[in-house]
Design goal:
The protein is mainly alpha-helical. The chain is built from seven helices and no strands. 77% of the residues lie in helices and 0% in strands.
Length: 190
């Protein structure tokens, strides 16, 4: 099967350089086209002549009329607003530019955390600090009581275990004595 792609007649380095130059030229062409379309987008007469009522209708019309990139007009327009210089576009990295626009949009749409300051009188502050100190002291005492109770519980568990073992020994001894008693009674009756 033969390939329809022509075999290179020059070195790959030269071809790569040419491809990079074309990429930069392509991005510059997209930049220039986006600037022209942005002017049309803002033209009131254009909107009236085409019965376009809002920005989304205009953007849809421009997207349908001017295809050729994976990005829509509103995306390219946002990139143009963030990168108004042709030199930025000539670098040929539309994907990175688009990612920066998306990141900036996400950051701008996050709700800001409002920090409120509360004015407190010195007396209230002092009282609050004293309350905090009292609660800390109570918490320290409670922790000491808990530790004491935990050690008491541990001691009682050990003692309970010892008593259970002693109780088992006593039960075994009682069974042994009962067995001896039954033998004794059977000998006395016989």
């Amino acid at each position: 099967m033969s390939s329809k792609i022509p075999k290179p007649t020059v070195g790959w380095k030269k071809l790569l350089t040419e491809a990079r130059e074309l990429q930069g030229q392509l991005c510059v062409m997209i930049y220039r086209r986006t600037k022209i379309l942005a002017q049309i987008f803002n033209d009131a007469q254009f909107r009236a002549d085409n019965s376009l009522r809002d920005d989304f209708e205009v953007a849809d019309w421009l997207d349908a009329e001017f295809k050729g990139t994976a990005l829509g007009f509103l995306q390219l327009r946002a990139m143009l607003e963030m990168f108004p210089d042709e030199a930025d576009w000539k670098a040929g990295d539309l994907a990175t530019m688009h990612e920066k626009v998306l990141t900036a949009h996400e950051e701008a749409s996050r709700p800001e955390e409002k920090r409120t300051r509360k004015s407190v009188k010195v007396a209230e502050h002092t009282e609050t600090c004293e309350d905090r100190d009292r609660w800390k002291a109570k918490a320290t005492k409670a922790e000491a009581v808990v530790e004491m109770r935990e050690s008491e519980v541990e001691r009682l568990r050990r003692e309970n275990g010892e008593l259970r073992r002693e109780n088992e020994l006593l039960h075994a001894r009682v069974r042994e004595l009962e067995s001896l008693l039954q033998r004794h009674d059977s000998l006395v009756v016989a």
